[in-house]
TrEMBL record:
GO molecular function: 2-oxoglutarate-dependent dioxygenase activity; metal ion binding
Protein name per its UniProtKB record: TauD-domain-containing protein
GO cellular component, one term: cytoplasm
Pfam families in the record: TauD (PF02668)
Ranges for domain TauD/TfdA-like: 75-347
Assigned keywords, A-Z: Dioxygenase, Iron, Metal-binding, Oxidoreductase
Family named by the database record: Belongs to the TfdA dioxygenase family.
Length: 367
């Protein structure tokens, strides 16, 4: 195999080159059709759309957990966050069952389904059909996607290349975030799975932002409810423009203002909604005030192990989380193994974040 490191804008052609070399060595990658492709397409700004949460429909079902009736084992990862399910084939869920799934993910934050080879092997068109049940599919402005499938967001790292957002000048690879929170309507129910994984390492950390919020005193929560913050996609775009992660920006980055505490539209639960990767400042506060509060919140999220769960990726695992009430971080501890980690994300957008406090106005201030 080639040993060069790929980080620049020549990545698309070099990915193909590496695959051709691998094939010539008799090593045909099973998911070659789902390798990252970096088209030079340009996308217009995302427009608003009407979102209706499928979890709402499940509230009227006689048994909103009927989709789990055939499960052979159900394990709560922690009391407040995460449930692991065995014996349910996601590929066979009916529309009603998918609605129930959305509600259950909203309630538990995170669901982990094992033994989902049927789902994973159905391929890209099925992934799109699956995700479209839950909302309009987000097309990422910078990440690689399978050729012809821009709705599928890919993460990818192997011995020769990395197409992840990886910061090298930090003492940790942990970077807590809620996916693309800079969008006006950030994602809700999100599906993610690995097509290839290292033999050990590469787990994913999750935290419940409902739980992290509950740790605060009532007066502090009352104060946070009055705040709104700027979320920015600029730094992510600049990372790509600097030649990393495929080196392409297909949609100009945006900044949007979201409430610091949002309310889930189905469960009504309040969740902390700031993250170190994309939140930049609290609107209306002086810089030192904003920095101090945000850094306190980021630090709280990072060190609250009693709000977190960790997913270990056994082959054919499919994970779903509600991006509105959780945050997560990759763990890049497998780099020296040179093994491939190749993941696909299906990312339906949801509602514009709803302030926990009805009196908070989002449109009366500039970014
Ligand atoms: Fe993420």
């Amino acid at each position: 195999m080639a040993t060069e490191t790929i980080t620049g804008s020549e990545t698309a052609s070099q990915t193909l080159l590496l695959e051709q070399k691998a094939r010539s060595n008799g090593d045909v990658y099973r998911y070659a059709a789902l390798l990252p492709h970096f088209s030079n397409d340009r996308y217009p700004p995302l427009g608003p759309f009407q979102f209706s949460d499928p979890g709402h429909r499940a509230l009227s079902h006689s048994n909103p957990r009927a989709f789990l009736d055939n499960a052979s084992n159900i394990i709560h990862l922690t009391p407040a966050l995460g449930t692991e399910v065995h014996g349910v084939n996601l590929a066979n869920l009916s529309g009603d069952h998918k609605d129930q799934l959305a509600l259950e993910v909203a309630r538990r934050g995170l669901l982990v389904f094992r033994d989902q080879s049927d789902f994973i092997d159905k391929g890209g068109d099925f992934y799109k059909q699956w995700g479209s049940h839950f909302g309009r599919l987000h097309i990422h402005p910078t990440s690689g996607h399978p050729d012809g499938l821009p709705e599928i967001h890919l993460v990818y790292k192997d011995a020769n290349s990395t197409f992840n957002f990886e910061v090298n000048d930090s003492v940790t690879t942990t970077l807590w975030h809620s996916d693309v929170s800079y969008e006006l309507q950030p994602p809700g129910l999100t599906t993610f799975f690995l097509l290839s994984q290292p033999s050990t390492g590469g787990d994913t950390l999750f935290t419940s932002q409902v739980s992290t919020l509950k740790k605060f005193s009532p007066p502090f929560v009352t104060f946070l409810r009055t705040l709104k913050a700027v979320h920015s996609g600029v730094e992510q775009a600049e990372f790509s423009r600097s030649g990393k992660r495929g080196g392409i920006v297909r949609r100009e980055p945006v900044e949007n203002i979201h409430p610091v505490i949002r309310r889930h539209p189905v469960t009504g639960e309040e969740a902390l909604y700031v993250n170190k990767q994309f939140t930049r400042r609290i609107v209306g506060l002086k810089k030192e005030e904003s920095d101090t509060i945000l850094n306190f919140l980021y630090d709280h999220v990072a060190k609250s192990g009693d709000c977190q769960a960790r997913v270990h990726w056994t082959p054919n695992t499919v994970v779903l989380w509600d991006n509105r009430v959780t945050a997560h971080s990759a763990i890049i501890d497998y780099g020296e193994s040179k093994e491939r980690r190749h993941g696909a994300r299906i990312t339906p957008q949801a509602e514009r974040p709803i302030p926990a406090w009805d009196g908070l106005k989002l449109d009366d201030s500039k970014v």
